[in-house]
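Please, structure for the following, as tokens.
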Amino acid sequence: MQKAITPALTRAHLALGHDRIAGYAVRAEDVSFATTPAQLFEVHGLGYPGTPFSPYAQSIDILRFESSSHLQYRDVPGYIVPLWWLRHSRLPPSAELVRVFADGTSTLIARYGHVGTGWSVMQPGAHRPSLASLSRCVGPVAKWHGAYLEADVIDDDQSVILALANPPLSETGFRQAPSGRWYRQVGRDDVSELFELDLTAQWNGLDVRVVDQWQDSQRYVVARISHLGDDVERAERLHLDRVEAGVYESVVYAAELTDIQTNQVVPHTWAAGPAQRALA
């Protein structure tokens, strides 16, 4: 899949280690003919109100990544290629950030390895990105040796990357990535559970996904929410921050959320481990 990345999101990826993605995407093969900013502007439908993109820009950044179960086909009038909607998700392993120039050339500027390593910037002399905080609200979670850890599935679903923000308490085979995060690769059958939490709620009548939670300085629990669905007018009226076309997010008090539902999602693409085989 492929989606255009706003300049603000490029800075977040390259400087802050931001590892999330949301919004409209297309199949890379459907737009392989688009090799200039002007062509990308057209095929990605970037001329929306308030757009930060321009068909006359010297470059446009695009993110290429593997398809996921979070993608939903959208029949949107006016688009010249099939369009998909991606709800707020962690980046899939091996995603690539590519800069396309006005002369038709392109260059790889960064690659996202997996949850253990984060981003690697390809530009010589570039600073290493900061490390985004781990969140069990978004992205795979694995149960290993009785503990739940943030995870990624790689090697055609045969291996699992386990990630820790802090050094393990004992020697367990974890190593520290250049990013500072600790990680270990294990076989798929070595984890007893593998799933993704899907925490949804309503906020002032708006369907949202809870993508992060923490305590503020007053010890109140706050949540970052990401808009679900097509009720853009309500999202605008509620003054959510527009990240890009159709993507609205905000930080709210968790007590303001209603109709909270927590589901454990197990995408069928993940190979069945012991827990899933027991349920089969």
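Residues 273-280 have pLDDT under 50 and may be disordered. The first helix runs from residue 7 to 16.
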